[in-house]
Fold this sequence. Notes:
This protein has one helix spanning 50-67; strands spanning 25-27, 30-35, 72-81, 91-100, 105-113, 119-129. It is mainly beta.
Amino acid sequence: MRLEDDNYCFACGKNNQCGLKLSFNYSNGRLTTEFIPSKIYQGYKDITHGGIITTVLDEAMIQAAIAEGIMPVTAEINVRFKRPLMVNEKVVAEAEIIKKGSRLIEAQSRLLMASDGTVIAEASAKLIPSK
């Protein structure tokens, strides 16, 4: 499968009007992004939907691999939610590649409160590099 970016990715696409429009920084093997979820991304009243949190964590891991020259797709993701993320709270996602193989990449990410570093959620994933 050939993977192409047309800037409409829900997580990072700059042309997707409904998207999160995440942008990333990569340094010393660690990728970061900041995000402030608005009310349109809520599940229960004023609480960010878990699917949005999972999307941010997944995209951070994918982008960490891309920063290392690998174009992957997610084969498996496991997320552990530690506390609710209220809408309009600024968070930072961090991700890193833990293990690189020719057929499988392992990554981890976490979402932290920007104000004090409290962990909102953690994720691990298995990524498959495109050929």
